[in-house]
Amino acid sequence: MDESGFNLAPTGELVLAPAGRHVYIESRNSDKENITTLFCVNASGCFGPPLTLYKYARLPAVAALSAPAHWALGKTESGWMTAASFYEYIGNVFLPFLNEQKIQRPIIVFLDGHKSHLSLQLSEMCRDNGIILVALYPNATHILQPLDVAVFKAIKSRWKTYKRQWRIEHDGNEVTKFDLPSILNKIIQEDQMPNNVVSGFRATGIFPFNENAVDYRKIIQRSPPPAQLLENMQNEAQNMNLTHLMHVESKIDPQKLEDFRATMIEGGPWSGDVADTSKS
Q: How much is the pLDDT for 173?
């Protein structure tokens, strides 16, 4: 279970056109808003009811009229997932879905460790209803979250295609936020999508369970420091050594230091006292 943002505005693409001519398409209704949608999938390749969040204080009726019947809708002040909206989704949408499908429990739900997913009220409700929440390791969802590994990229690629085709079929008008659920519903029902989901669970080693299936090469490795950084580190070390030396010399008789420096410059051996007896 995880959410992702979907941009409504068309993204840039490479085009071939005569030099010196204006080839940009002017949009009459450019909306740069990102719409958050949560997806739920299982290891057999099936999708649970998704949730799309809108940035509204009061959800307009057109949102409900435009979305598929099984598609959940929510609202938050920011348009992003919150602990309250996620709790409402689990209690009002996900649990009824499990009951309707007669899915045997307990079940495990893998999600990231975002604070919106890990409230006390949610944990208690899940505990009482046979849902085991497992928060994936931080900064590791790109290798451990099936949706991130094999599903979201495919969905967004198709979403980009649909946005472009929408403008062609609707006289240059862009897709609106209320059209998003119906389009995403078409995408997740495409024939290849269940295979992507199954591949995601396999590639993350969740099902079939296999810790060796994880692509650990995607873990960011520390690269050798660049030359400038290495030089700065060396300079800092030298400055630190110089500071320590100055502290030691401040405890030695100045005349003795002058004699020692003169002897070192001349290259001769030091013939003075080995141990300093001057008072600090």
A: 87
